[in-house]
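Example 3.2
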Amino acid sequence: MKKNIAIIMGGYSSEYKISLKSGNVVYETLDKEKYNAYRIHVFKDKWVFVNDLNEEFELDKNDFSVLVNETRITFDCVFNAIHGSPGEDGFMQAYFELLGIPQTSCNMYQAALTFNKRDLLATLKPYGIKTAESYYLNLGDTIDEDAIIAKVGLPCFVKANKAGSSFGISKVYKKEDLQAAIDDSFKEDNEIIIEQFLDGIEVSVGVISYKGKTTVLPITEIVSENDFFDYQAKYEGKSQEITPARISEDYKQKTESVAKKIYDTLKMKGFSRSEFIFKNDEPYLLEVNTVPGLTNESILPQQAAEAGISMEALFDNAIEEALKK
């Protein structure tokens, strides 16, 4: 009997358009002989099932079911394709945990932790994971520009603490530009992190649970045409994403080891994609994404393809792993 799979997409953040693309790729890719796939749009003002005619049917949030032509549909598993809140920060994970519905991403605690850049880096530091020097600000704090620069130097990166797809991120070269960058980040979140600029090779590495085993995918080297790997570089072709990365065997082994250690230390499941920059021949962690882009152009599917894993196999495995739990 075919399983009913809800593919949740959209979300409440600036990343909703990218999420819709990811979700539609999952919908188009899943084996229709094995699964009944349903596109579920999750927005602040509505949670709806959208059929192939673009008709909308409201979800019952009490049990995450939907009534379609007098037939109530329930779901065996949820495929999470929501980038940002509420799909990547723990809210949907907690909701489905309470309802007892398996879902493809990590658990609630891991999602909340990894979505919070500051908390993630602080949690991993005692495990020997190297990170850039950083300075924290909350909305309403007194901004001491001299203290910030003394701590992290110039240039530096100003980042929204809980945001993805490079929203709310600026690279600052001069003290007089710091306030505008801080204001921009506060548009995305009420917490920000200001980080030291690391000048080195940037790489991205996917780690997934594949057939019951923690699997490190081939590493991608990021070469941005812009000043850093910003939104344009990620989604508008302003970068080269080279898989496998043109790095030494030593760099490769170090990155794989650290990425796997992060995944296992945090007791992750599902997809993850970690970003690193090399400094003094060591990988420094920037962030961990737990609902990475899932389009054909996205980094993690590129890495899976290099490892000989098709999109269909990648998505099918995610569902099978979730159902096992």
